[in-house]
Amino acid sequence: MFNEIINRRGSGSYKWDTIVDDGIIERGAYPLSVADMEFRTPLEVRQAITDFAHKGFFCYTSGDEVYRDSVREFLLRRHNFKIENEWIVCVGGVVFAINTAIRAFTEPGDKVIIQTPVYYPFSASVKNNGRVIADNPLVINNGKYEMNFTELEEIASQDDVKMMLLCSPHNPVGRVWTKEELQKVGEICLKNNVILVSDEIHFDILRAGQEHTVINNVDESFGKNTVICTAVSKTFNLAGLGTSNIIISDEKLRETFKDQLSKDGYSCINCVSRPATIVAYTKCDYWIDAMRKYVDDNIEFVKSVVKRIPQIKMYDCQGTYLVWLDMRNLGMNDGELDIFLRDKCGIIQDPGYWFGENGKGFSRLNVACPREILEKVMNKLEQEIKKL
Ligand SMILES: Cc1ncc(COP(=O)(O)O)c(C=O)c1O
Question: Rounded to the nearest whole angstrom, what is the distance from the C-alpha of residue 95 to the centroid of ligand 1?
Answer without folding.
Answer: 6
